[in-house]
Amino acid sequence: MANFIEYNRMVESSSGGVDCSSAGLIEALPDDLFVECLVRVPLQWHANLQRVSSSFRDLVQSREYYELRKAEGTTSSFVCMLQPMPMCGGEAVPEKDFAGRAVCSPDPVHGVSLLDVNEQIWSRLPAVPGLVGGLPTCCRLVAVNGLLVVLGGWWLRTWEPSKSVFVYNFSTQTWRRGADMVNVRNFFACGAIGNKVFVAGGHDENKKALASVETFDVEANCWESLGSMREERDECTGVVLGDSFLVLSGYGSESQGAFCESAEVYDSRAKSWSFVDNMWPLISTEPAVANPSSLVALAGRLYSIRGKEVVVYSQQQNTWTAVEKVPEDTESGELKSLTITASGNSLIIMGLAKKNDDATFRSMRLLPAQGSCKAQWRTLAGNGQFTSLAQTSCAFEM
């Protein structure tokens, strides 16, 4: 980290900026000592830190700063969720419009909710400037190196598919527009490897299932075709495991709703695809069971939700095994519509507990069993302003 600071100081000096012999980040305080304090500053204050000086900005946005925070154990785990905004007079509303006024809309308005898993604090990301109607419904969320990438979905006012891409920088706490998707697609699989977002399958504006695959380079802000998979896969599920992007299940144009058991895997190192038969044999006539809509990777293993069970995948045997049953609260009611997200070293399970006509939003944290340590379940604190099921979600560490 000291080398990084010194390098930036030299660059500033060579361009006519700060002199190499000038004081450090904070006068009369050694840089290393100050950085030790700086890595403990919570994420929500990073935007303010970057307004102090260009040196502060470069430091807070650097990969070295993140790596030091990770080494010092001062990072936090977050889950991002696409949720409808709270209701006001029977209508969904964003908290404020861009002039700071409360606004009602005849259509549900979707935004990104943020759960700090460690502190159990719920919050919302600011609205995208100029996007008064909120984000497209059913858009996809992908975390990429401290950025949140939002892709696809439908505009509720017109029900037209969206090709828009929005990128949120958690460090500067600002949005920017990304390059539009090359092709219209929805209900597609997605995931990130390095600074590239992979999108595969889904369907186009005519509801035709797709086999095509594209990548979005977040830094270069450009799209590139990656050819096609062997099969069309609408409503498929994507997950990244190591250097591989997996596209699981889905169905073709001629088999609407009949989810297949196979998967296709892209090896980003070998730049090649492979086909895996019978990877999701848990097909059922019950839609919530048949479609593996929540599939996550944690510590080199794949987890999913089947009904009310947490299942894990064995690559050697090509089988799924139930390892945990989601605990229920009899007072709250039966759990429905469960989703799963991997965050840090744990799995975040969310769902609605329904009893009579009442529904309660519940979120739980599962630390999977490891060695002689048994699995641990913990109920996460709720917030009355965040009670809707997430349409899509992703997790990141910052």
From TrEMBL:
Coiled coil: none annotated. It comes from the Eukaryota. Residues 29-69 form the F-box domain. One of its GO terms (biological process) is negative regulation of cytokinin-activated signaling pathway. Transmembrane segments: none annotated. It holds the Pfam family Kelch_KLHDC2_KLHL20_DRC7. SMART domains: FBOX, Kelch. This is F-box domain-containing protein. It comes from Physcomitrium patens.
